[in-house]
Amino acid sequence: MKPIGLFSNPTQPGMGVAVDQLAQRVHQRGIEVLIADNLRRICKSDARWFCPVDELPSRAGLIVAMGGDGTLLRAADLVHPHGTPILGVNLGRLGFLSGAEPWELDDGLDRLLGGDYAIEERIALHAQTRTQKAFALNEVVIERSVTARLVQVVMRVGDAPVSSFYGNGLIMATPTGSTGYSLSSGGPIVHPNLSVLVATPICPHSLSLRPMVMPGDQSVTIQVVAEQSDEIMLSTDGRSVCSLGVGESVTVQRAPHPVRFINMQGLTFYDLLQRKLDWSLDRRDA
Question: Which CATH superfamily hosts domain 125-254?
Answer without folding.
Answer: Probable inorganic polyphosphate/atp-NAD kinase; domain 2 (2.60.200.30)
